[in-house]
Each structure stands twice: as structure tokens, then as C-alpha cells.
Amino acid sequence: MAGFNITVAGDSAINLEFGNVISEKTNGLIRAAAQTLEADPINGVIELVPTFCSLMVVYNPCAVGYDELTSQVRGKLRGLVATTGGIHRVVKIPVCYGGDFGPDLGDVAEHAGMSAEEVIAIHSGHDYLIDMLGFLPGFAYLGGLDERLHTPRLATPRTRIEPGAVGIGGAQTGIYPLASPGGWRIIGRTPVRPYDPDRESPILYAAGDYLRFVPITPQEFSLIETQVESGTYECEIVKGRAATPIQAEVNNDQASATSAGRSEGCEASERSSADDAIAIPQTESDNDQAAGSAAWSEGCEASERNASERAAAPQVDAVPQANREEEDEDALWV
User: Fold this and answer.
1) Cα–Cα distance for residue pair 196/219, rounded to 1 Å
2) How many CA atoms lie within 13 A of 324 on its CB side?
């Protein structure tokens, strides 16, 4: 059974707090709680808002009182187990790296002590779990950025960052869905629109999905941008096991081969198939890559089955937390 703390968030919301450390385990518990409450809804609950470490439950106090709500939440989530690293939605995001699209790529590379090609290979080398959405509509807070790419934010934020900019800020990476001020280091840009209010589903993805950055050339950027403007482009979404990051030194020979054929102003890592290849983290040798891969589960796209096999995400199990001896009136421990 998973422990969580219930705290008051104003007169019409409560927070279910599953921890104070951002982790895949905590995220799995939050997603499992949200799925449970969506499948078996409580009368009066208006919205569920997942965050890094908690799930906000927004409710109508005229329809359900605080005591009744917390009682039902405790009952429905008793014995909660985190979702596991099985089949996920993986949203492919084409990104043109470097040049005018990514003016800070060189700074990130210099801070990491590696080449721009190596930064691109690492950044596009695995899938990123969306922990939560916030700040702007469609702004995804992603987990799992390789520690080698952790880079301080700009000392002076830019007053405007273009929509689609892909950046690194500290230990996080993400996409600016709208024009905005910001202090993240911009390493590339995507022509797709993570947020479009005129689309049937305005936001391309949801918390619990994964994003996969796919390097493209400037020519491909222009082509996709034209298709997006005409409404004919659909961002590719596949189902499969998310590729997890592998902490290993980047092989310089592999990085050099990856960078071959890149167009000036946009670095694009080479794939075995331009459209359907699956990003694989850089490892010390090709043999290590082959040994570390695992078969995709049934249900993956046919094109994905023909590409390199992916490493399965680790299983996540809920760990019961000890009951607190003392509780205050506004904090209920399950």
C-alpha cells in the first residue's frame, strides 16, 4: 500500500502528496492515483491536476464536503500500486539543432566539455517522461535529462523565446510551446506546435507520456513547418517501451559518424531510417548497444518493430511509507 499525505489547497481543492523528491516512482504513483479516480469518479470532483510530487483534486464544496471527499479518496486509493514501465505513448518531436535554431548549443557543449554532435546524440538518445504540464499551455516538464548536459540557466533571461524552442535549464529540458521570456539555454527548435487552441486536442501530449526528440535538417524543418501551417502535419505518436538513459561515455567515433551529412545551421544525428528509427542512447560500443536492447511489446507500430530494439523501462513498485505518529488537522496520512 502506498502512503500519501492529504493537505488543504484552498476552499475547493486538496493535494495528495506522494513524496518530496522528483522520481519515476513518485510519478508512477501519481499517474496510478489519477487513473483510479478517473475510472471510479467521486461525485463533486471537477478536475485532477498531476504535479511533480502530488495530485491536486479540485472539487465543488457544494456537492461534496471535505470530510466526505478525503474519506472516499482514502478508500479508493487504499492499496495503490504505481504504474510500471510497460507500454507508453511516445510522442516524436522533430528538432533542428544548432545555428539560428539553437544559439546556445555551443555553450552547452562547452560547459559539458564535449562537441555539439555529442550533445545532440545524448539529448536525442532516449525518451523523456512528462512529469507534469505547467507554466504555459503545453509546456512539459520532462524527467531524465542526462547529468552530463545539466547546464546553468542564462544569467540574464531573454525577453522573447520563439515558439517551439527546445532548451536546457539546470537539470531539465523542454519545449517552449508559445513565445515567452525565458532563461533556458536554447539548443534547437521544433516546427510542430505542442499547443494549438484550434486543434481538437489542443495539447499534443499529457503527463505520463514520453517525448522523443528526433534531429532533422533545416530543409526538413521548412517542409514540416509548411505542413503544420496548412494543417496537414500530424505529429507521430507510437506506443512502446520508453528508452531509458544509459550513463556511459560517448564514443567519439560514433559521434563523428552520427554527425555526418548535417546541414549548416542545424545539426541532425543520422538514423538508420529517417522516419521510423528509434533513438538509442550512446554506449561504449555497438556490441554494448545490441546487448542492452530488448524486444518491443506487441502493439508497437509496425515500422517501429523493424528498427533497433529498445531497453525496457525499469519496473516501478510502490513502497509503503510508515504511518506518522503525529498528524495535524490539515494533513491526513494514508
Assistant:
1) 23
2) 11
Dihedral angle sign, alpha carbons of residues 244, 153, 179, 120: negative
pTM, entire model: 0.64
- pLDDT tens-place string over residues 117-141: 999 999 999 899 998 898 899 999 8
Q: Cell 555526418, residue?
A: 260
Higher pLDDT, 282 or 149: 149
Mean pLDDT taken over the chain: 77
Give the per-residue SS3 of 185-241. EEEEECCCCCECCCCCCCECCCCCCEEEEEECCHHHHHHHHHHHHHCCCCCCEEEEC
Q: For residues 241 and 90, is the Cβ–Cβ distance under 8 A?
A: no
Phi-psi label, residue 98: left if phi above 0, alpha if psi -120 to 50, beta otherwise: left
Q: What are phi and psi of 94, to 5 degrees?
A: -70, 135
Spatial neighbors of 158 by CB under 8 A, at least 6 apart, are: 181, 182, 183
β pairing state of 165-169 and 185-189: antiparallel
Q: Which of 88, 113, 297 has its CA nearest to residue 209?
A: 88
Cell numbers standing for residue 157 = 533571461
Tell me how far CA of residue 21 lies from CA of 26, 31, 68, 308, 325, in angstroms: 8, 16, 29, 33, 22
Give the list of residues 6+ apart from residue 55 with CB closer than 8 angstroms, or none. 15, 16, 18, 30, 33, 34, 48, 49
User: In what helix (H) or strand (E) does residue 271 lie, and over which residues does it extend?
Assistant: none
Q: Which pairs count as long-range contacts for 36-42, CB under 8 Å and 24+ apart, including other chains?
A: 36/76, 36/77, 36/80, 37/73, 37/76, 37/77, 40/76, 42/69, 42/72, 42/73, 42/76
Q: Which helix (H) or strand (E) holds 184?
A: none
Q: How far apart are CA 126 and CA 90, in angstroms?
A: 11
**How far is residue 309's CA from residue 240's CA, in Å, rounded to a whole number?**
10
Of 22, 69, 20, 62, nearest in space to 42 by CA: 69
Give the span between the Cα atoms of 168 and 178, in whole angstroms: 16
Tell how far CA 65 is from the center of its chain: 35
Cell of 190: 521544433
| 8/328 Cα distance (integer angstroms) | 11
